[in-house]
Amino acid sequence: MGFGHSYVWPLNVITSSFVPPAESSYEIRCSFDSTCPPKIQEDHLNKIKDVFASENPGKIPHQLMSLLEVFDRFKIDIAVTGESGAGKSSLINALLGLNPDDTGAAQTGVVETTKEATKYQHPNLPHIRLWDLPGMGTPSFTSKSYVKTVNFDLYDMFMLVISERVRENNVLLIDEIEQRKKPFYLIRTKIDNDVRRKKSKYAKMRALDQMRQDCEKNLKEKNLDRHVFLVSAHDTEDYEFQKLMHTFTDDVFQLRAEVFSDFLDKMLHGGWLRARYATNHIQQTGKLETEDITELQNMCKRTGFGAAKVRDVLEALSHFQLDVAVLGEMGSGASTLVKALIGLENEECGAADVSISNPAMSLGYPDVRFWDISGIEAVMDYSMYEMKQGLNSYDFYIIIVSDRQKARHLKLAKAVEELRKHYLFVYTKVDCHLQSQSDLCSDETEILDELRVQFMKELKMANLSEQQIFLINSLDRCAFDFVSLESALSSDLNTVRASAFAYYIARTVREQ
């Protein structure tokens, strides 16, 4: 799996019936480096090697973790702005996945409802703060005083919302954003209202094309190349709302890295006046706490890290591929689970291509590669030493519980814990278990609770750390614990990414 990965289970061991040890001994030791893509692109990796060329590899993980722990707490502020009535608050709710009547939703209405800048925390992007700004062009916020009153300087990026043609006020806002050299999206809302009036498909497509041309025309006149999105806040599956979300998710990490590096540059190399201004701005906006800023200053003195080096580190981190091994015995449903996690149906084209040599990826898990490793009994029953060596190639593990009598899932968990890595237990085909227990005079909840209790006893007897088990049916992502599994997986992957990156860099520097 790129640099530093020395072992792999060959295809005939993983995906077919058991191969005698004499025939598979050499193949188990096959190098993975020649067949799998690296975890970081070569150009970014070379920059990182230069950054740490003179460093002791043993100190690199601690240095990187110290830096990334502070970066993980760094917040950026996205302002949603535009004329009053353009649909800013409705767009905020759509971005947050909330209905207007939900708790915590932005207030919407036909009259001016936003009187001051209101902060909203994105549920899946904890580092992002969305700000619903008052509408421009009202008696309270006139066009002339608007930018100064709402203080554009506080924000790192803007979403400029329009609901009709681009007007003079919108052009004024674009000019003010550009003067501050801040990125922005131009978002045309209420598309559904405009398209609904068109009867034919051709007329609808023509209307959408005219809206886009109107938006892009004003940008081109200013020689600006910015994203334009045509969306409906009430129909998020149609038009370009999903494209907006995917683009935004991709862009915000890079934006955080740029804002963070720019702050470091001013703090370390900008002279005392610029450093003081930058530090005060970070503190006043709550992007970092005072103790985090002090930690950054001390760390940079100890390590010699400057803004340029930090920028290279964060750029490499943004391209780092996290490798997740889905481990199961033959017939345990490992392949089906991988397909479910990436949103594929079994019958979809390409669904059967996921394998040990062909990882699966999904927009729902950016920069994560899922490896379907079925048939683990072929390696485990031959050599747990080889198994453990192979496991070390991955960053995180989903261990499927199938044959509880042979308890291979417990042996796998013990091996992973010895590697000091993280994992989740998943019991697939729980629907089949319920069907096998149908003769018992118990309801579904009682049967599942008893299964969980038995599992906890097995963990305790095996001296393993206490773990939740997720009971799922991979063919129904809405049933049982599948939603909880996805939530836990996303959280855990975010947690392990920094440490996996730090140790990978240290290992790469050590081996060069």
Your description of this structure?
With 512 residues, the protein is an alpha/beta fold. It folds into 2 domains: 190 residues, Rossmann fold, CATH 3.40.50.300; 176 residues, Rossmann fold, CATH 3.40.50. It has 20 helices and 12 strands. It has a 6-stranded mixed β-sheet, with helices on both faces. Strands 8-9-7-10-11-12 form a 6-stranded mixed β-sheet, with helices on both faces. The N terminus is likely disordered.
Shape verdict: globular
Count of alpha/pi helices: 20
State the fourth-level CATH superfamily of the largest domain: P-loop containing nucleotide triphosphate hydrolases
Q: Biggest sheet: strands side by side, in what order?
A: 2-3-1-4-5-6
> Low-confidence segments, ≥5 residues, pLDDT <50?
1-35, 347-352
In terms of structural class, how would the helical and strand content be classed?
Answer: alpha/beta
Radius of gyration: 26 Å
Give the biggest sheet: 6 strands, mixed
CATH first level of the largest domain:
Alpha Beta
- The total strand number stands at 12
Question: What distance lies between the first and last C-alpha atoms, to the nearest angstrom?
Answer: 16 Å
* Known CATH architecture of the largest domain: 3-Layer(aba) Sandwich
Return the domain count. Answer: 2
Helix content: 40-55%
Which strand-content bin applies to the residues?
5-15%
- Return the average pLDDT rounded to an integer: 80
